[in-house]
Design brief:
single chain, alpha/beta, UDP N-Acetylglucosamine Acyltransferase, domain 1, five-stranded parallel sheet, 19% helix, 28% strand
């Protein structure tokens, strides 16, 4: 094996190792009071003010993956979430992501019968302001969740979601429009004007 082939093989085999990120999350074992949002910032992710990230999230991707994560202010990310950062994942302001949600930016084309997982395909995922993603949902590559949308727990999101809509199921189906939903803390008279 030539030096070039050996170097390339080593690079491919170690591409998923993220020393900075592993060090940052390793600190949680000894310093459990450190907020995950701060550790994500130290690892290179853009994380907005007043964002809460619970312990136990997983980040996957190539070296430098943290630069592909942008989380807006006042977001809330529950434990056990997986972020596949082969491509950008962008969360707007006030986004809530439920327990064990998977946000995927990579998949494979259908390959030949000898190897069905064909060529790698990557596409970003965008979740706009105020959206709520229910626990154990799976978001596939290339989708956009519109502002104020609600994804029911356990949903498989395989297409874009319009703003202020409620979707759910596997694959997702439209459940309701939320744009005229009256909140308990709002005065209905003000909404009518």
């Amino acid at each position: 094996m030539t030096k070039q082939k050996l170097k390339k093989a080593l690079q491919e085999d170690t591409a998923g190792i993220h020393p900075r990120l592993q060090l940052a999350f390793g600190l949680l074992k000894f310093l459990p009071f450190l907020p995950c949002a701060t550790l994500l910032r130290l690892a290179g992710a853009a994380v907005g003010e007043a964002t809460v990230v619970r312990h136990g999230i997983r980040l996957n991707g190539q070296r430098g993956l943290a630069k592909n994560l942008k989380i807006g202010p006042k977001c809330h990310i529950e434990p056990g979430c997986t972020f596949d950062l082969q491509e950008k994942i962008i969360l707007g302001a006030g986004v809530c992501v439920g327990h064990e949600t998977m946000i995927l930016t990579s998949s494979h084309q259908i390959g030949p019968k000898e190897h069905r997982a064909g060529e790698l395909v990557i596409a970003p995922v965008v979740i706009e302001d105020g959206a709520w993603i229910g626990a154990r949902s799976v978001l596939l590559p290339g989708i956009t969740i519109g502002a104020g949308a609600l994804v029911s727990p356990g949903s498989l999101v395989n297409k874009d979601v319009a703003p202020h809509t409620h979707i759910g199921g596997t694959p997702v189906k439209h459940i309701a429009n939320l744009d005229k939903l009256v909140h308990l803390d709002e005065d209905p008279q003000e909404r009518a004007t």
